[in-house]
Design goal:
Mean pLDDT: 85
Strand content: under 5%
Family: Belongs to the exbB/tolQ family.
Membrane topology: Multi-pass membrane protein
Protein name: MotA/TolQ/ExbB proton channel family protein
Number of helices: 4
Order of helices and strands: HHHH
Organism: Bizionia hallyeonensis
Subcellular location: Cell membrane; Membrane
Radius of gyration: 18 Å
Low-confidence stretches: none
Number of strands: 0
Oligomer: single chain
Structural class: mainly alpha
Largest sheet: none
Length: 127
């Protein structure tokens, strides 16, 4: 249990708590919209379709935030390289790692939400 927590918390803090938190919020919002969409599938199809669109938008926002944080991380890494003149490759690799963590988490958020969106779309066609 402790190992699992360390595997999740360490990359979260290394990726930058602010941007990773924003991406996590987008994931949670997407899941909430999907749950509301699934729960209103039989009773209110229009609400279900609205929740589907909102889930798609919030998952896309998480993806875009991940890539925005990635670009910011790359700019920061290049700034440190420029300031040092002849940089240590380990410092540059650390900046690249931070950049890729946010992009990867944004992609993971998008994939998780997209799976739910595909399932909800498939069920909406049956109703």
């Amino acid at each position: 249990m402790i190992l699992l927590a360390l595997l999740l918390i360490n990359p979260f803090s290394e990726g930058g708590p602010i941007m990773m938190s924003l991406i996590t919020i987008c994931l949670i919002i997407s899941i909430v919209f999907l749950i509301r969409g699934f729960s209103s599938l039989k009773s209110n199809v229009n609400l279900s379709k609205k929740m589907l669109k909102l889930a798609a938008d919030s998952s896309l926002l998480g993806l875009v935030l991940g890539f925005l944080a990635s670009i910011i991380g790359l700019i920061t890494a290049f700034d440190s390289v420029q300031a040092m003149g002849d940089p240590d490759p380990a410092i540059f690799a650390g900046g690249l790692k931070v950049s890729l963590l946010t992009a990867g988490f944004g992609l993971l958020t998008f994939i998780i939400a997209r799976i739910g969106i595909l399932l909800l779309k498939g069920l909406q066609k049956d109703v």
